[in-house]
Design a protein that fits this description.
The complex is a heterodimer. By secondary structure, chain A is α/β, with parallel strands linked by helices. Chain A has 26 helices and 35 strands. Classes of the chains: A alpha/beta, B alpha/beta. Chain B: It comes from Citrus sinensis (Sweet orange).
């Protein structure tokens, strides 16, 4: 009985989606393949054919992805089709993928999906994913082994339930000049914990204008070590736990896999989900995101970095091709004229004819093409059944199926000719232009995800018309647009508007032109100059007065500024002390700290403290003074409207004396030597002349008070008098005034002697 | 010196400037060559810096550079040594009771033995030292000390200029006439004169392709490849294992040499002989580019009796691949011996032509150059 029960329980547990990691390991690996990139980078081609079916070295892209998934040990693939879903499903049905023994391909179709996020939400609803899965888009080429990455992912998952995703990254050096990676995508900045390989920060849209990125300082505070990478390339191959799908459902605003989902998880610290990275070193993985990566991945395939997914190895549906020396791949039944020159790293498809004296290098030519004589083809991608008549020139272009180029036509670098376009005789297609039989959609939403949805409807329209009246339509459009593509030309040249001409060269198949590179490198130099200028500007602005700066600052203006600030600070401190009855010792401490931070001498302190005391003496309203003012409205009332109340000299003297007595300890603490005392007298003199003329009649008396209170010694006063001896008459005003006092002091000292 | 002669080795050890522990497991056939445990020498030498009173700092510096491998390549090593001797001569003053000719020669001999300790001399350096000593011996006795020193320094300058720098320029001019449009040129390792030839031909606007063949453990070809690519040449890089595959496409082979011996044998970086033989088998002309000061009247038939042994650890490990470690901790195994030879000898029948500063000659004409011009350059 008991044993039976146990067995039943075990069966039940197995039936459920078990959380036990061992069970997970035994579960067949699943993969979600998004057969739609949800972007518009491959327009106008993608208006007529889905991106995953575009030929990459004469094999539709999706085959590379599926072949890799099969080899990597994935048992079940869900192909999510959206735009042109019918074409994708038809293709897969006719291919051998549905009849593989240990590899099942299932399609999920939906038409109203506009983003990867929506797609994953839909898949979650269908409840077909039971364990860890590989998330990949149908335009990825790879030959890596998943075993190690999967192992790491599972082990992490066992320890930490929040490790939901492992991203595959690969080293790739981005160009500092163009600020884009080798594959034409933006430079990617990643912060990774070097020990745990956890991804901490992900930024692919860094501020290019400044060349700076902003890191949350908490990143640095929370992690013992961080390595910030700018040389890594995101392969867009993710190993995900099933939680990822539910996360997409919970956060219905997640659309883009990287921009929303990854960044969202990294920012969200409530749930604590973690993303890890797995770096591959010797194997290959890259995603085709734009025309430039199409070019580069094609070249990588031809140069066999993606082995075994190369043209001469049959991995799926590709025709038998022979590899010859220097990377020349030739399929069977090629008719090539003896005088034709086929250079290195070229692929020539089945049944292609090449005329005499034609030169072909670094290019891919599809099946059933006819190339006339004296044709020049360089770095170009020519798909199937293209007819190129005599004397054409093609450099770094993409030419889709069924295009006809009449004799003498020239394609400048970066041109893309979509399906069945006809280029007229001797017509020169300008650089970076895109030519299609379809007119450019006029409605442009700012959101590129939404844009795609519009397109798919547009395509449906086209396919009907094309089916019904193929010949009719071409003739019509050729009449309407004769001047556009030369005599006999058919198609529309799309005006460049997405990103503008400026951005076009970044993503095109053509190599970056020389002038752009020099322009950019100059701009970069300027930038660096700007940065250095900024730095110097900052240091002089006084916003960042560091000790080193102040000591370096032999600039007169600088130190003057400093002393003004310092005086103000001291005055504010002193006034606060008076108001709040702060102890003298504390005030001394505060002034001392100010002195240190402004790098001032104690003479400066003495001067500043004395200055603030005198200011206070003027400001302090004396009860009797107010009374006097109200009783005797006098010419003084005009001055009284100023901030300072007016005193009779006797009262001011009294006030000053009071303040000096209360704060003499503060003042004395800075009067270490005679120099400081002289500084005080000089300061006082300056005040009487400039800022506080009220004191001028009282100068001698206050001097006396200071002497009485032992703040000033007679030596200091006498020295000051001696110093003033040789000065101008105007400077001697106060010496004169206190002449009697000085006389007295002199006599007193003589008596002592 | 024969390092399998125990008595002599002990004698030389007493004179040695610094300790060099000898390698334990050595290949029987190469016991006569010095082989040391690498790794500790540099620190040992550095720690002795203050004790070496008699050593001139310039010579010491060059010695450390040889030992650390910072200065490599026949020409670079030779120039570095001569420059150091120039400084020695400048700082020299004859001690009382001695004559300049005798004392300076003895001094230079002691420096040379120090340099040999750091790394065995190349034959070109031997020639340069011989030239230097003969210049000192032939100094007229009437010269004052300052005049003698100035004359010697001037001689060194002339040697460097005429025998190395100008000679390279002449070789480049000669060799460039052998490069035609559409050629595929193969080179092995990294030879500075071959590099100059390729760059010069490229500057002349010739359309050709370069195949750089490289080998472990030094991977010198990679540095060459990097420099060629920077100048915009179209290159193919491969390792010596694939040389028979790539030789189909090649139209000419340009090789550098450490020395050319009077029987026409080329003494060069290990692997050169293999490349030359494969090229010969494929009927591809092999051109050796070598300055005439590297010619030597010695006759050598194999690469055994005179050679240099490298660090055995270099071939036991694969740099950058820590996962390939099956040889770790095996270096001291008794019945395993590593052989890391630095040079090999290419027999003259595999060499089509030797390009030198006296023109393009067949290997059979090397003795003529050695005989006719040796006297000339020793006299300058």
């Amino acid at each position: 009985m008991g044993a039976q029960k146990k067995r039943a329980a075990a069966a039940a547990a197995a039936a459920r989606v078990s959380e036990d990691p061992d069970d997970l390991a035994r579960q067949p690996l699943q993969a979600i393949l998004l057969a739609d990139s949800f972007t518009t980078k491959f327009r106008p081609i993608t208006l007529e054919r889905p991106k995953v079916l575009l030929p990459l070295v004469n094999v539709p892209m999706i085959n590379y992805t599926l072949a890799w998934l099969e080899a990597a040990g994935v048992a079940e693939v869900f192909v999510f089709c959206c735009a042109h879903s019918k074409q994708v499903i038809d293709y897969l049905e006719n291919s051998e993928w549905f009849s593989q023994p240990n590899f099942t391909v299932k399609t999920i179709e939906s038409h109203n999906i506009i983003s990867a996020g929506d797609a994953l939400r839909l898949i979650y609803e269908q409840n077909v994913i039971h364990g860890d899965f590989v998330l990949i888009s149908g335009d990825t080429v790879s030959n890596m082994s998943l075993t190690q990455a999967l192992q790491e992912h599972k082990e992490r998952k066992k320890k930490d339930n929040n490790a939901v995703m492992t991203m595959i990254i690969k080293k790739s050096k981005p160009s500092p000049i163009t600020r884009q990676s080798r594959l034409g995508t933006d430079e990617l900045f990643m912060a990774i914990d070097p020990n745990t390989k956890q991804l901490l920060y992900y930024e692919d849209k860094a501020d290019h204008s400044k060349g700076t990125i902003c890191l949350d300082k908490m990143l640095l505070a929370e992690n013992p070590s961080i390595s910030l990478h700018n040389d890594k390339q995101d392969c867009y191959i993710d190993i995900c736990s099933p939680e990822v799908l539910s996360l997409f459902t919970d956060n219905f605003d997640y659309q883009h896999l990287r921009r929303h989902f990854v960044k969202g998880l990294l920012l969200d610290d409530i749930m604590g989900y973690k993303i890890f990275t797995h770096e591959i070193h010797s194997s290959y993985a890259a995603r085709i995101d734009n025309y430039r990566s199409y070019d580069i991945v094609s070249k990588d395939i031809i140069q066999r970095w993606t082995y075994p997914y190369v043209p001469d190895v049959k991995f799926c549906g590709n025709r038998a091709t022979k590899l010859e020396r220097r990377g020349m791949y030739r399929a069977l039944e090629i008719e090539q004229s003896r005088s034709a020159q086929v250079g290195s790293f070229t692929v020539i498809g089945y049944g292609t004819k090449i005329g005499s004296n034609s030169k072909i290098s670094d290019s891919v030519i599809g099946e059933g093409c006819t190339i006339g004589s004296n044709v020049l083809i360089e770095g170009s991608y020519i798909w199937d059944n293209v007819i190129i008549e005599d004397g054409c020139e093609l450099r770094h272009v993409i030419v889709c199926d069924g295009v006809i180029m009449k004799a003498g036509a020239v394609l400048k670098p970066g041109v893309v000719l979509s399906f069945k376009v006809v280029i007229g005789e001797r017509f020169v297609v300008p650089a970076y232009s895109k030519v299609s039989l379809l007119q450019q959609p006029t409605v442009h939403d700012s959101d590129e995800e939404l844009e795609y949805a519009d397109n798919s409807s547009g395509t449906v329209e086209f396919s009907c018309t094309a089916d019904q009246s193929n010949g009719e339509m071409t003739s019509e459009s050729s009449e309407a647009h004769k001047p556009k593509l030369g005599t006999g030309g058919v198609g529309y040249i799309w005006s460049i508007c997405e990103g503008g001409q400026e951005e076009e060269w970044r993503h095109s198949v053509a190599p970056i032109p020389e002038d752009k590179l020099t322009e950019l490198s100059e701009a970069m130099d300027d930038d660096q100059e700007l940065v250095t200028q900024d730095r110097t500007a900052l240091s002089t602005s006084g916003e960042l007065i560091s000790d080193s700066n102040a000591s370096e600052g032999d600039d007169n203006e600088d130190s003057k500024d400093d002393s003004v600030y310092f005086e103000k600070e001291v005055e504010a401190t002193f006034l606060r002390a008076v108001e709040e009855n702060v102890k003298v010792d504390h005030v001394i401490l505060e002034v001392n700290s100010l002195r240190l931070s402004y790098n001032m001498t104690s003479a400066d302190c003495a001067g500043a403290v004395f200055y603030s005391m005198m200011k206070l003496a003027i400001k302090t309203p004396h009860s009797s003074a107010i009374g006097l003012l109200t009783l005797y409205p006098s010419p003084f009332s005009m001055v009284a409207s100023n901030a300072y109340p007016i005193y009779l000299s006797g009262e001011l003297q009294q006030n000053t004396a009071n303040i000096i007595t209360t704060w003499q300890k503060l003042l004395k603490s800075y009067l270490l030597e005679i120099d400081e005392e002289i500084e005080i007298i000089l300061k006082f003199e300056e005040m009487c002349l400039e800022s506080a003329k009220e004191f001028s009649p009282l100068f001698a008396r206050i001097l006396h008070i200071l002497y009485d209170k032992d703040i000033l010694q007679e030596d200091a006063i006498l020295r000051w008098a001696d110093e003033k001896e040789g000065a101008d008459e105007s400077d001697k005003v106060f010496v004169r005034q206190s002449e009697k006092f000085i006389q007295w002091l002199r006599e007193a000292s003589e008596e002592e002697d | 010196m024969q390092f399998d002669d125990q008595g002599r080795v002990n004698k030389s050890k007493k004179r040695a400037v610094f300790n060099q522990p000898e390698a334990k497991n050595r290949v029987e056939l190469f016991r006569h060559l010095p082989q040391y445990e690498h790794g500790s020498q540099l620190t040992d030498l550095e720690s002795k810096f203050l004790e070496l009173d008699s050593m001139h700092p310039a010579v010491y510096k060059v010695g450390v550079q040889y030992l650390a491998g910072d200065v490599t390549g026949g020409n670079a090593r030779c120039i570095a040594m001569l420059r150091a001797f120039q400084e020695v001569i400048n700082d020299y003053s004859t001690p009382p009771g001695k004559t300049l000719v005798r004392d300076l020669t003895a001094k230079i001999s002691s420096y040379v033995s120090f340099l040999i300790e750091c790394r065995p001399l190349s034959m070109s350096m031997g020639n340069a030292i011989r030239f230097q000593k003969s210049r000192i011996a032939k100094l007229p006795l009437t010269l004052s000390e300052t005049e003698a020193k100035a004359a010697l320094c001037n001689d060194i300058d002339r040697f460097i200029n005429e025998k190395i720098i100008l000679a390279d320029k002449v070789i480049v001019r000669h060799a460039a006439t052998k490069v035609r449009d559409g050629d595929v040129l193969l080179t092995y390792g990294s030879s500075c004169v071959v590099e100059m030839i390729l760059l010069y031909a490229h500057e002349l606007g010739k359309q050709f392709r370069v195949v750089v063949v490289d080998s472990r453990p030094k991977h010198e070809g990679q540095a060459l490849l990097r420099r060629l690519l920077a100048k915009g040449l179209s290159c193919t890089y491969t390792h010596i294992n694939a040389v028979s595959y790539i030789m189909h496409e090649v139209t000419r082979v340009f090789l550098g040499a450490s020395s050319v011996l009077s029987n026409g044998t080329t003494y060069s970086r290990v692997g050169t002989a293999c490349v030359a033989m494969v090229a010969h088998a494929f009927r591809v002309p092999v051109l050796i580019c070598c300055e005439a000061y590297k010619f030597h009247e010695r006759v050598q038939l194999d690469s055994i009796c005179s050679n240099e042994l490298g660090d055995s650890n270099d071939i036991a490990r694969v740099p950058g691949r820590p996962d390939v470690n099956s040889m770790d901790n095996r270096t001291n195994e008794k019945n395993l011996q590593f052989l890391n030879l630095m040079y090999d000898a290419t027999p003259s029948e595999y060499v089509s032509m030797i390009i030198t500063d006296y023109g393009m000659i067949p290997p059979t004409s090397v003795p003529v150059i050695v005989r006719e011009y040796r006297r000339e350059y020793l006299l300058i």
